[in-house]
Amino acid sequence: MKRILLSAVAFACVASAAEPCTGDCVCISVEDAKALGIAVPEAAAAAGGSDGAALYKKCVACHGADAKTVYLSKVPAIKEMSPEDFVQSLKTYKDGSNNKYGMGAIMKSQVGAMSDEDFTALGEYVKGL
Ligand code: HEC
Description:
It is a single chain. The chain is built from eight helices and no strands. It is mainly alpha-helical and 129 residues long. The protein has two domains: 40 residues, no CATH class; 80 residues, Cytochrome c-like domain (Cytochrome Bc1 Complex, Chain D, domain 2, Orthogonal Bundle). It binds heme C. The site of heme C (HEC) has 26 residues, from helix 5, helix 6 and helix 7. The site of heme C has 26 residues, from helix 5, helix 6 and helix 7.
């Protein structure tokens, strides 16, 4: 019984990684969850523990909370992009090779310190908005 309860608690925490851990909640990493044989939701597993919702807070000012903002009447809603294109464009902003709308430097400063896992997590989050 104790075992089942632990699984349920851990599952809830991994599933809602965006929520801060409070009260009786026990937070564990995706790797630990897998090692314990606890089911991990696809998005969390794909993201390797990166928190798309938390990362996206940085993007809201320009791309909108719903990712549908057309920035400066030039950059189309990023919600319309496929996750593959989304991740690819962030990678190329990071390495400085993407300057599609002439403002690549703005995006480089946004994603320069992020990892591929962060990009995947952001892609999943935006897709789910
Ligand atoms: C200060 C405003 C600003 C912030 C904050 C910002 N962006 Fe951008 N974003 C831009 C601009 C400007 C471009 C267009 C750059 C270019 O290619 O010239 C862009 C382009 C993009 C594109 C590609 C759009 C396309 O049509 O190819 C994606 C994807 C994107 N941003 C995601 C993000 C994510 C994810 C974050 C948060 C981590 C973020 N942006 C934060 C301004 C911003």
